[in-house]
């Protein structure tokens, strides 16, 4: 299983609308990716390692697929529509990480 993580750095002065992300963007992404997407998770950063410090990321979205190929096949045809929705909830340039889930 692979996990596609979309990480939104906690930049000073940036905006992120968690309500839109959870209630509109993620459901739209799930609909577009269809059955290839095996699951999703959304996290909101609350703190860094030091008490009272800012979290490194304001939000993180995770999408699960059986393989990188499954992700690429599902995402490719909808990439433009998914990417065009990003400015509706944030001005942050996301970082993308594709990982193999081991445990």
Q: What would your notes on this structure say?
A:
By secondary structure, the protein is α+β, with helices and mostly antiparallel strands. It has a domain at 9-41 and 67-103: 2-Layer Sandwich (Alpha-Beta Plaits), CATH 3.30.70.100. Helix content is 30%, strand content 28%. It has three helices and four strands; from the N terminus they run βαββααβ. It has a four-stranded antiparallel sheet. The longest helix is centred in the first third of the chain and has 16 residues, at 18-33. The mean pLDDT is 98.
Derived from helix and strand composition plus strand pairing, the structural class reads alpha+beta
Give the CATH architecture of the domain at 9-41 and 67-103: 2-Layer Sandwich
The proportion of residues in beta strands is 25-35%
Tell me the major beta sheet.
Answer: 4 strands, antiparallel
Identify the CATH class of the domain at 9-41 and 67-103: Alpha Beta
- Can you count the beta strands? 4
Low confidence ranges: none
Shape: globular
H and E order: EHEEHHE
Number of helices: 3
Please give the order of strands in the largest beta sheet: 2-3-1-4
How large, in whole angstroms, is the Cα Rg?
14 Å
> Span from first to last CA?
10 Å
What attributes does this structure have?
globular; 103 residues; four-stranded antiparallel beta sheet; Alpha-Beta Plaits; 3 helices; alpha+beta; 30% helix; 28% strand
Quick recap:
The chain has 103 residues and is of the alpha+beta class.
Describe the secondary-structure layout.
Blueprint: E1 2-9, H1 18-33, E2 39-44, E3 57-65, H2 68-75, H3 79-85, E4 95-100
Antiparallel strand pairs: 1-3, 1-4, 2-3
